[in-house]
Amino acid sequence: MRLFNAILFSSKIIKNMPKKNTKQVQGKLETIQTGPITVDKSGSVVIKINAKPGAKNNNITDICSDGVGVQINAPPTDGEANAELIKYLSKVLGLRKSDLSLDRGSRSRNKILVVQTSLGIEGITEKINQEIKENH
Question: Which superfamily does 37-135 belong to?
Fold first, then answer.
């Protein structure tokens, strides 16, 4: 009988004990960003681009919810416009061309560009807005 009471008592104690929090918070908080410039899980900045190849000169036209509008002075053949896009945006952002890579949209006007930088969303948005002001 004592053994039965001991088992019953210990199971009541275990049930009443607070449970451990199994979720651990990692180094940085992930925030859900909406808009054309976001940060992915690896910490890279992701930019949605609406490319307009075949323009007279390279220019950032606007930033809207769909993406950053970029006019490219290269024809959309054989990847020339993509190479010119990366070259132009690396100049605008003050980064090396190797810091930018085309993730999706190599044959589309809607592109996803991944940027390896410590600038963050605010720094990139500031540089893009500065380029828009200089060209308009």
Answer: YggU-like (3.30.1200.10)
